[in-house]
Amino acid sequence: MTDRYKIVNTLFNYIITVLQAGITSKDLRLALEPEAASIYCKELIVNHEENSQSSELSVLREGSKFMVVDMGGGTVDVTVRQVVEERKLKELNVATGGPWGGSKVNNNFMAFMCTLLSQEVWNKFCSDYMSEKLELEREFERKKRYIALDSDNRILIKLPSAVREVFKEITKKDLNNAVAIEGGYQGKVEMKRDKLKLDPKLFQSFFDDSLNSIVKHLKKLLKVIETDTFFLVGGFAESPLVCETIRKTFPGKRIVSHDDAGLCVLKGAVLYGHNPKIVTARVCKYTYGTEAMRYFINGYDPDEQKVTIDGQPFCKIFVKHAEMGQTVSIEDTSKCELEAVSATMTVMTIPVFVSTEKNPVYTSIPSCRLLGKVRVAMPDISGGINRKVIVNITFGESELMFEAINAKSGEKVSASYDLLGENDPENKNS
Ligand SMILES: Nc1ncnc2c1ncn2[C@@H]1O[C@H](COP(=O)(O)OP(=O)(O)OP(=O)(O)O)[C@@H](O)[C@H]1O
Ligand SMILES: [Mg+2]
User: What is the reported pTM?
Assistant: First the structure.
């Protein structure tokens, strides 16, 4: 099982628990993290603006674009939104980002400890003293929260006594004497009783990987989308070092951070729950379409795409309804007509597909994945192949609503597909 699959599984188990607790599915709404963050940011009381001495209330006005940088533990997700009429939000790009969240800093500290103590000592400590390792992680987590760009005092980290014991057992040396002269950190690290004293620059360097990647990504995004306002949210945005580095790197921008940065997503999700219509448009993360048959064209279509029906050569093509990167308004409908491929067919099966390509031609290519199938009864075969089914696809809050109508009888079949989790094409190999 991939981590992503585990997360989706956990989420669905959680939803089942909520439903079992008596909350009906109509009262349950999934909020997308970056969307929830944007909703909160739009309403945010800005009291930490740079260059502003006063605590002023500033709500973004219609037309303004803003970037929300959600810095969590695992990932950093960046989205750009625009405030449209009636203070609603339009998504201008799909969330982008990477695994540059706060846990990368913790991982760098652990890697440093491994270099400092030697692989052998570190491995033994981690495997034989798990609760002490947890204690060390907690200690680092506490110290990590206070480091700023201008910190010049050495940072003290209390080491569990097991570290010293394992070090002695394996190296036959005393840790307090050894760290000052070994491990390549002379002058930057020393031991005082049970505490490791770290040079602030060394401590800040644990943030380098994350900060460099975040800054690089923001610079890249700014080349494509112009915006003057950055909202920094997520737990990692509570770090003074993180906020100060971003402020220093983008001096002309309005960087808004908040004491409660870690709660912005939660608060935004509550606002969204009260008013889902606050989101008017989303950018499609994938290309959505249906599968249809068309005559096989010799010399144009690859041979492996040929399917023979009633002695006629066909191929299965992807009929696009919405393209990856395209902005679709919530409740927008895309329409198309599909014709019977055989004069005697009494049921039309319409497969619904997603693709990670903008313009997939055939449905059997690796970028495409079947979401599900809708079957429309066509018992009256009097029209032969001149019988039609009208397909309407509506983009809802978090679902793709699919409606197929038999053009002659008016009979309707509908289905909906979750766009947030299980049907995500990224999970197809899980
Ligand atoms: N004051 C702080 N200084 C530095 N880091 C902090 C601070 N407060 C929280 N963090 C870090 O923020 C991270 C957690 O943030 P958050 O709760 O937003 O993550 P998440 O939403 O659970 O993760 P993800 O969005 O990646 O799924 C942790 O890595 C934590 O160490
Ligand atoms: Mg998060």
Answer: 0.70
